[in-house]
Amino acid sequence: MKVLVPVKRVVDYNVKIRVKADGTGVDLNNVKMSMNPFDEIGVEEALRLKEAGKASEVVVVSIGPAQAAETLRSGLAMGADRGILVKTDATVEPLAVAKLLKAVIGNENPGLVILGKQAIDDDMNATGQMLAALLGWPQGTFASKLEVGGDKIDVVREVDGGLQTVSLNLPAIITTDLRLNEPRYASLPNIMKAKKKPIDETSPEALGVDIAPRLTVVKTVEPPARQAGKKVGSVAELVDKLKNEAGVI
Ligand code: AMP
């Protein structure tokens, strides 16, 4: 079984982002970019399936500018077999990403696709669900455990107030939650080996997909600055402030 893992190049989770002065978005100049953390979890899970003899090949795919090839190299350095870059400088919204992934899946025929539950830049949490709908495939979202057996996969899902297990027929779409696994670090020898692994390049035009945006960003604002803390003299004063100033009790 081939496993396809879509990996997005996003602002590194350690970066304190700055909003552009004109409010049109986030400033990406000289900002460290990395693989979306939920996608690292997806790559890790695919590699574990391969190591357990349940997957034969792990293919990483990224949609984005030429630099998204670096994100693919990170996946290859973790252990993925090859990469596919769908090159575009345009902004691609979840529906466009899902349509492009559907086209890639049509060429690759994977048995399983593991996406992140959300990309930490736009927090859309939409692509996996849209892809499952476009393909008519079963979906197991917010996965915290996977068990592949024969032509089925059991997915433990993190839902409000507990865990739910669903059994899906393969091929299926999975989206990862934080607790699914802890991704490995790429070792130096594997980083060197990854340089020789193949990355195929294609484009939205070659895949015949219209990626015209449908959403308009009205404005982007910084969160309000936190006010300095205040020292209180007694519990009674604290309760009074919580009740009458903060209005939280
Ligand atoms: P989102 O719906 O944008 O929050 O993204 C959910 C997941 O879809 C991500 O964790 C990735 O696995 C995948 N994805 C979204 N955008 C891209 C992209 N440009 N390239 C590759 N995968 C993507």
Strand and helix map with partners:
Blueprint (H helix, E strand, L loop, with lengths): L1 E5 L2 E3 L21 E3 L1 H15 L5 E8 L3 H11 L3 E6 L6 H15 L3 E5 L10 H9 L3 E11 L2 E8 L2 E8 L2 E5 L11 H7 L4 E4 L32 H12 L3
Adenosine monophosphate (AMP) binds next to helix 1, strand 4, helix 3, strand 6 and helix 4.
Q: Descriptors for this entry?
A:
electron transfer activity; binds adenosine monophosphate; transport; alpha/beta; electron transport; Rossmann fold; single chain; ETF_b
Contiguous low-pLDDT stretches (5 residues minimum) are: none
The number of helical segments is: 6
Distance between the termini: 55 Å
Give me the count of strands: 11
Keywords: Electron transport, Transport
Function: The electron transfer flavoprotein serves as a specific electron acceptor for other dehydrogenases. It transfers the electrons to the main respiratory chain via ETF-ubiquinone oxidoreductase (ETF dehydrogenase).
Family: Belongs to the ETF beta-subunit/FixA family.
InterPro entries: ET-Flavoprotein_bsu_CS, ETF_a/b_N, ETF_b, ETF_beta_N, Rossmann-like_a/b/a_fold
